[in-house]
């Protein structure tokens, strides 16, 4: 028997570029991109601690040299110059780590795309050298959603364990720098409520 429009089974055609990615019946609910603004979020405790030490030393150096007049260290003997140089090295290293982290995250966001379906959250990146990557996380009743309420805002929905040298830390995963973060958060809550019904 030949299929007609009335008898043919319903097919869910994936949008262009999503063929063989979405599951059967999976539907795209929202797509967007992060804003280009410079931000440190999510804040990593290790980097913030290093930056705090650098800033404290940066503030301490002028105080330490008030009795020496200007320019700083002008009347220090060679033997007493080593401590200020060490302080300056620590300050520059701390500030470089913080600024480098912020700049790297900003550059990555400019090559990032977000997609929310009725089942999963997708983050796609297209970075130099690393190329194109697509990661996804299921949105379930057990998913812990965290909306920061800012403008632009962020919605965090997962975590990833990472390692830097000998230290380990947890990196939050989510959609960042969104003008419509509240809308995206409500969509995710609706997904959870439907699953719980």
UniProtKB/TrEMBL annotation:
Assigned keywords, A-Z: Membrane, Transmembrane, Transmembrane helix
TM region positions: 51-70, 82-103
Top-level division of the source organism's lineage: Bacteria
Protein name: Aspartate carbamoyltransferase catalytic subunit
